[in-house]
Every structure is written in C-alpha cells, then in structure tokens.
Amino acid sequence: MAVHEHAHRGSGFRLSAFFRGHRTVSASGTSVAADTVPAYALASLRLLTGFVFLWAFLDKTFGLGYATPSGRGWADGGSPTKGFLSTVAAGPMESTFHAWAGAAWADWLFMLGLLGIGVALVGGVAMRLAAVAGTAMTALMWMAEWPPARHLSDGAPSMSTNPFADYHLVYAAVLIVLAATAAGDTLGAGRLWARLPFVRDHRWLR
Question: Is the pLDDT reported for residue 171 higher than 80?
C-alpha cells in the first residue's frame, strides 16, 4: 500500500506503528502507548480461542455433559473421535475418516492437539507451533464437514450455509494472526518464552 510522503512524516497513519511500541501524546500531555488497544485486543482473542480448545479437551476427556455426555468421556473409556468421524457423510475423505474413527492413534493425536494448542494459547507460548497444529486440525475438521456439499452421500440436504467459509477456517485464520502478531507477549509468557536458549536457537518454536 503506497503512502505519500509529506514534509511532516509523523502526521500520517502507519500500519507498522499500530503493532509497535510507538508512543503518542494525549490531549492531557500524558505519553500513551499507541499499541495498547490492539495488543490487549489480540491477547483477549488469544485467551478466548485458547479456552475453546482447552474446554473441548476437558469436556471430551471427562464427559462434562456439554458436547460429551456424562460417563462417555475419554477417561471413561469413550473415544473422542469415533462419534464425529464415524458420522462423516460427505466429501472426498468420507471413507478415510470412517476408517480413522475410534482408532487409538487418532484419539491420542486429537486430544494431545487440543491440549497442546489450548495450553500454548492461554500461556502465550509456542504460538507458531500452535498455529501450525491448529490450522492442520481445523483443516481436517473442515474436510470432515465438507461445506461445499449441498447434499450428503445418502442424498439428504447437507444444511451447509456456505460453500467455503465456516468456523473452522475462521479459527485457522485467528491462529495465524495471533502467531504473526506475537499476541502471546501481552497477558502471556511470550517474552519469557522467547528468551529461553532453545527457543532463541530455534525461532520456529517462538
């Protein structure tokens, strides 16, 4: 995006300053961090998204009576993937998802993914890893629901409301934005995490 240069360079809006520690002076003469509002907004979004993943893990593990009925949690011997994947009824991976449903490796990967992503987001650490894992998970769930289908494999209406965009893609976009903007640095341990020697040596862990 081109921005015309003027004699007073500080008079225009700059997107980079929106995410930096740029300071302006308020009407009362007090120095105010221009990034305070977006930083806390992104931190709030991070915490809410983290709670979505953590709650899903807790509900599926202990059967808290929301998406998972009491007594049918993972800790009770239930499978967190069987109910969803066995009912996939559209899309090119329908038979594949049926084969995965209830498999021990699928249960463990799914649950560890929910826990890891949730903890990373709430703690504000390993945001890049969380974004990659969360995007992969939500992409698979998007394929399982397959919004492009107007009808299920048995001919019944799919009740899809949009052929592409659904909440799984929104979650993926949110995760990418949170990682790209270092949202874990505010109301989180992102800065401390970044100072750890093994994180400094492997920036992809940031």
Answer: yes
